[in-house]
Structures are given as structure tokens and as C-alpha cells.
Amino acid sequence: MSELYAVIGDPIEHSLSPAMHHFWYETYNMDHHYHAFRVKPDNLKDAVRGMKAIGVKGFNITIPHKINIIPLLDSVDDEAQMLGAVNTVVNRGGKLYGYNTDGLGFLLSLKEEVPEILEQNPKVLIIGAGGAARAVGLTLAKHVKLQQLDITNRTMEKARQLSEECTDLTNTRVLSLQEAKDTLPDYDLIINGTSVGLAPHIDQMPMDITPSERKQVFADLIYRPLKTKWLREAEAQGHIILNGLPMLIYQGALAYKHWFGKLPDAKIMQSFLERKMED
Ligand code: ATR
């Protein structure tokens, strides 16, 4: 039977989620539909009631609703509760269950793309302390045995808050941008969780890359452009790079799993979305 799935946010017109989920529906011969709805903050409550009323089976939530949707749901799982944000909802018999697959999507992208990094108790630096950086930081702190999780950000106070939230989970410190730059070669994994480098500001990067003797992993949560200046410079210095597209795909794959019970093929999605983004 054909079912309706959705994503709600504002803005929403550039979302890749409809294309991604339709590609999986076609691959697995499912007759479902996934639609992007622009919902303004004042209309969130009505939109969620509408989802229930028309029997939408599941939906994703994106900016700016991930936090404000929580009181509108019947139940929220541990991961979403830790993050204080929901990006996936399942409608089970008229009751709405909230989940968060953002941080776990990043973790799965590491497991699939650079598995060796997780096997060595890595020393990790996160640059940024906004919503995306926070989801990734807390998820790594909770699920990976880290030697160290350092956080730096333009606004130090926000880095301090995130680090404090991680203290019960892992060994964490706050660094100034200058301190982080000076000690950059010490880290196994360095993640740009800021919006610096996002199109159209493609000539910027969150900090200069201090040359290092050994190979490190440089990750970016940005996928537009696919290769930020940060990743281009890291690659030019011989490092391993990971862009934000696998995180986007795996957060979608984990949402799909909440709705249909199993993980879809994420590998086939990569080249499809890369082609789609060129259009
Ligand atoms: P997102 O949901 O993408 O994480 P966000 O919550 O607005 O977006 O967070 C954006 C992050 O990028 C923050 O860490 C922000 O730093 P501040 O906390 O100091 O605002 C960072 N950021 C955005 N523009 C920046 C810039 N021009 N230079 C440095 N950091 C920047």
C-alpha cells in the first residue's frame, strides 16, 4: 500500500531528502511518496496535528523545528533526549515517536568510510558548537571510546557549554581557536562543525591547517560544496578527508530504518546525490 512520508522545515526547497527517499523507494519497489513541506514556526503545532490527521506514517524535521517539536510528540527516545532535538518521527497508530539520527548518521559515516579511526581510541577535535557540532560531539562522546574530545569555537562560551555536557561521557577540554590550531597535528580526527566554507562562501575555512608529519582524518559536516576549502587543503597536505554527504545519507538511512525496519543501501546513494547536486 502506498504511504506518505515527509520532511518539514523552513527553508526546505533545497532539501535532498525527497530525492534520497524516492530513490530508495524505487530501488526496493515501494510505492510510497515523500514530500517536502515548508512549515513556518508559528504553524508547527497545526502541521504536526495535520500529519496525524491525514495519517502520515513518518516524517523528518529540519531547521528550525528540531527542538520545538519535542513537546508535540508522545514519546522521545534516549538519543533525541540527550541531544534535545528530534529529526525523525514515526507514527505508530496515531502516536508520534521522536528519534534523532544526525549524530548517529555521522558515526555510521565514520564506521563505513574510515573504520580504522574508531579502532584506535582517537583524539578528536571539533571546531564549532552549534546544532550540528553538538549532535556530533555528544554522539561521539557517548558511543566511542575516545582518548580526548577537544572543542573549539569562535564563541568560546558555547564551546564551554558543549564540553560541559560531554564531561560525564568522555575526557574533554575547551581550547581557543589559536590553541587548537597550534595543537592540530596531535589529533587523529578533526571535524569542521561550523558553517564556514558553506556555499557561497567557498573560499573560507575554519582555521589554517598546521602541517603535520602523520596522516590525519579531516572531516567536514558541509556537503555543499562537496569539497570545502578545508578538505581541499587537508587533501593537498596528504590527509584523509570525509565530506558531509555520507552523514546526510546515513541520517536518512537510519530514518528509513525507523520506518521500515532495515537499513537501505547507502553506497548506491552517494553517486546518485553527487550527480543530483551537479544538476
Ligand atoms: P548548524 O545548525 O549548522 O550547526 P548553528 O547552530 O548556527 O548552525 O552553528 C553554526 C556554527 O558555525 C557555530 O559554531 C558558529 O560559531 P558561533 O557559535 O561563534 O556563532 C560557527 N560559525 C558560523 N559562522 C562563522 C564564522 N564566520 N566564523 C567562525 N565560526 C562561524
TrEMBL record:
UniProt-annotated binding residues for NADP(+): 78, 128-132, 153-158, 221, 244
EC number(s) on file: 1.1.1.25
InterPro entries tied to this protein: Aminoacid_DH-like_N_sf, NAD(P)-bd_dom_sf, SDH_C, Shikimate_DH, Shikimate_DH-bd_N, Shikimate_DH_fam, Shikm_DH/Glu-tRNA_Rdtase
Pfam family, one: SDH_C
Catalytic reaction annotation: shikimate + NADP(+) = 3-dehydroshikimate + NADPH + H(+)
MF GO annotations: shikimate 3-dehydrogenase (NADP+) activity
This protein's UniProt keywords: Amino-acid biosynthesis, Aromatic amino acid biosynthesis, NADP, Oxidoreductase
Top-rank lineage group of the source organism: Bacteria
Signal peptide as annotated in the record: none
Active-site residues annotated for this sequence: 66 (proton acceptor)
Record function comment: Involved in the biosynthesis of the chorismate, which leads to the biosynthesis of aromatic amino acids. Catalyzes the reversible NADPH linked reduction of 3-dehydroshikimate (DHSA) to yield shikimate (SA).
NCBIfam families in UniProt: aroE
Name assigned to this protein: Shikimate dehydrogenase (NADP(+))
Source species of the chain: Scopulibacillus cellulosilyticus
